[in-house]
Amino acid sequence: MSLNTPTYDLIILGAGPAGLSSALHLAQMMPGIAQRTLILEKSQHPRPKLCGGGLLPDGEIVLRELGLDITEIAHVDAPLAHFDFAGQGLAMNAPDESGIAFRLIRRDEFDAWLAAKARASGFDIREGVTVKTVQASAQGCVLSTDQGTFHAKAVIGADGSKGITRRIVNPRETAHSARVLELIAPPKPEASSHIQQDAYFDFRPIPTGIGGYIWDFPTLVKGVSSRCWGIYDANFTSGAATRPLLEALAEEMQAHGYDLSEYKVEGHPIRWFESKAEFSSPGLILAGDAAGVDALFGEGIAPALGYGRLAAEEIVAAFEKNDFHFSRYKRRILSSELGKSLRLRTLTARTFFGIRNAPIQRFIWTKLGAPTTFYVQSFLVYWAKRRQKKG
Ligand SMILES: Cc1cc2nc3c(=O)[nH]c(=O)nc-3n(C[C@H](O)[C@H](O)[C@H](O)COP(=O)(O)OP(=O)(O)OC[C@H]3O[C@@H](n4cnc5c(N)ncnc54)[C@H](O)[C@@H]3O)c2cc1C
User: Fold this and answer.
1) Taking CA 137 as the corner, what is the angle to CA 148 and CA 11, rounded to the nearest 5 degrees?
2) What is residue 292's three-state secondary structure?
3) Of 97, 262, 312, 369, which one has the fewest beta carbons inside 10 Å?
């Protein structure tokens, strides 16, 4: 290693939920590591991040374990999550006595809040620094950035779906990415306050080959009650959709009194979990979107927070043994409750989005409410609760 460039024990690439959760878990597990770690982030918090902001109870469990209280920041509580096909289906409520199915946060505020917590734990977050290349090996890593070169014994790649680290670990991989569009609109003028609080998922686009759903969430944008609309397509078979996403979203919104052309629509991919993929290479481990999140709903905030714990455990084990090959990281992920849930979600999404017959889809959501709810709650979500139960 060169002596005239900064050298750290650890560099975390990306200050989103995955990178910041990794840091906060490390602060708990490895006293003193914060001072020997550098977090590099190309944006500046509070930075915009396209996201519906739906934070499931799993995410809150992880935050609570870190001693963090989500109610410190602005949020909306959604008492019910409706899962529909063409407007009819089932409603899932809270898994506990909280009365909240899930909460909706804004990512600029949430990520800035997490970054402030990481800074308070002693981490140096260098913002406005874009990492250009990472050369990683078990003997050390070199990161070249637009502001110089940095060295570290290990790197956590938490640079999201469009980051550079995924490709380093999986150089020959074809993309496993969902297509997602999103916009912010005012609340529905005619709706009652209870409808305004609920979150809606409608799987109506599936028969047109779009592997996903349209969402309509309550949200609070700078204190103003709003709706976040969007469309998710897991995109398992590229080109399978017979209809543009924008057209499907416009039609659904029109049925609720909105004219999509009045709103700014933005898109961003979500990289979903593929158990055949690699999650590390010597010197480098992936977390969050870089590693792959939920293929079924595109849920990535709570998984990113969960990856933070797994990444931190792996880093602690590496420093204890002074071995940075990270050859057991994949096993750590696949055997975790988070890994099992993500693996099953990919499998479920492949099967479920393949059922393009509208009457069957309607039947699933309207007639199979109890078994569907049981399956989703027992196997797909609430992985953090299952981990806690196992101890
Ligand atoms: C439209 C949309 C809606 C969504 N809605 C939801 C939802 O409602 N609920 C939910 O749970 N999930 C949702 N997701 C998924 C969720 O946003 C992601 O899974 C989550 O952000 C993953 O966190 P992360 O920390 O892995 O990555 P990110 O949040 O993307 O953070 C990565 C960070 O790395 C930085 N970075 C990247 N490259 C570099 C570089 N070269 N140098 C320096 N820094 C770099 C980025 O600036 C960024 O801050 C949605 C995603 C999209 C696109």
Assistant:
1) 45
2) coil
3) 97
Rounded alpha-carbon distances, angstroms, from residue 168 to 164, 177, 282, 284, 285 = 7, 17, 11, 9, 10
Closest ligand 1 atom, residue 302 Cα:
11
Q: Which two tokens stand for residue 380?
A: 């797909």
Q: Which amino acid is at 214?
A: I
Q: Which of 49, 147, 161 to mutate to test the pocket of ligand 1 (most atoms within 8 A of CB)?
A: 49
Cβ of 309 closer than 6 Å to ligand 1, yes or no, is no
What are the distances in angstroms from CA 21 to CA 169, 197, 317, 320? 21, 28, 17, 21
For the Cβ of 50 lying below 6 angstroms from any atom of ligand 1, the answer is yes
Q: How far is the CA of 184 from the centre of ligand 1 (A)?
A: 18
Find which of 190-194, 240-244, 254-258, 281-285 is predicted with most confidence, using mean pLDDT.
Answer: 281-285
Residues 6 or more apart whose Cβ sits within 8 Å of residue 245:
179, 181, 210, 231, 233
Cα–Cα dist 52/71, whole Å: 18
- Of 50-64, 192-206, 221-235, 290-304, the one with minimum mean pLDDT is 192-206
Q: Decide whether any atom of ligand 1 lies within 6 Å of the 43 Cβ.
A: yes
d(CA 290, CA 159): 6
Q: Is the CB of 286 under 6 A from ligand 1?
A: no
Neighbours of 155 (CB within 10 A): 30
161 Cα–ligand 1 center, Å = 7
In three-state form (DSSP H/G/I as H, E/B as E, the rest C), the secondary structure along 87-126 is CEEEEECCCCCCCCCEEECCHHHHHHHHHHHHHHCCCEEE
Other beta carbons within 10 angstroms of residue 177's beta carbon come to 19
Residue 277: DSSP 8-state: S
- Ligand 1 pocket check for 18: Cβ under 6 Å: yes
Residue 163 Cβ inside 6 Å of ligand 1? The answer reads yes
Query: Residues 366-378: pLDDT tens digits?
Result: 999 999 999 999 9
pLDDT per residue as tens digits for the range 257-294: 999 999 999 999 999 999 999 999 999 999 999 999 99
Please give the backbone phi and psi of residue 272, each rounded to the nearest 5 degrees, phi first: -100, 165
